[in-house]
Amino acid sequence: MSHKIASDPEWLPHRYDSSRGHVHFIRASRNDHREAVFLTDEYLRNAANVQAVSLDAATGAGDEAPLHFVFHSAYCCSTLLARAFDLPTISMGLKEPQILNDLSGWRSRGAQPQDLARVMAGVLSLLARPFEAGEAVVVKPSNLVNGLAGLMMHLKPGSNALFLYAPLRDFLGSIARKGIWGRLWVRDLMVKQMQEGLIDLGFQGDDYLRLTDLQAAAVGWLAQHALFARIIEKFGAGRIRTLDSTALMKAPDAAMGTLQAHFGLNMEADALKALVEGPVFKQHSKTDSDFDADAREADRQAGDALHAEEIEKVVVWAEAVARNAGVPMRLAASLV
After folding, report:
1. Measuring CA to CA, which residue among 256, 262, 10 is closest to residue 130?
2. What is the pLDDT of residues 307-322, one digit of tens each?
């Protein structure tokens, strides 16, 4: 039974039990993937109906497709992009698998590096099982997993990645528009980044307690840019490319054309045209309501107007911090 589950891509490796070395699989059809905003308990209807299989028994049971990654700094159209790779016979996009969050949490609780690498290798192989023969798999991890991006790239030398980010002003505007929940989220992110040792911007510990919410948001954004820059330097532009969300939405045909080639998908021109002119780029990625590039820009402008003064001051401050810390505001290896 365990071999049958592990070889079937409709059994999603959903959680990892580090105390027993078990993977918890749940049933998730391709349509379940489409309907779920993220591959987390909140959105998966079968999340409570698990089948536990030891990682050792599960690994190697099924076929393994080419695997690629979309890493991101949050609120940058990454869910839209993951949805765009749901292309039967070509690729499948996985939106923030919970099991990768579990491995990140295990690391923060003191997992030994060699154990973490072994388990991550097995989990990535399970995520790479194709729904249809010939498909590639494109995984969009949660940005909370970015600290493990380098490990994933090391373990999968045949994988390529995109680092997707929103320009700082856009990111701050997104956080401000989300009110208290956005502001709490960026503080939680900053705390996690500090625990992982990802923040090195020249401040002392107590200095972070004095930051405003949007300054905390900027710190998180800068920490992710610094991390991305280091990984690009290590693995090179041949494997890692970068893209900001403004460029993606302004010219999705150019961005997707280059990106699908980067991932080795070889889409036909007609298929690419249908994709960028279809519902993925004309709907809100989390609600499926009408939301094309013009509507997205109008929403941004209307919301940012309420917080313009604060956003502008934090941008100036963040640019000064970036200069002092040597963090690039625009990443190298641009896709377009």
Report:
1. 10
2. 899 999 999 999 999 9
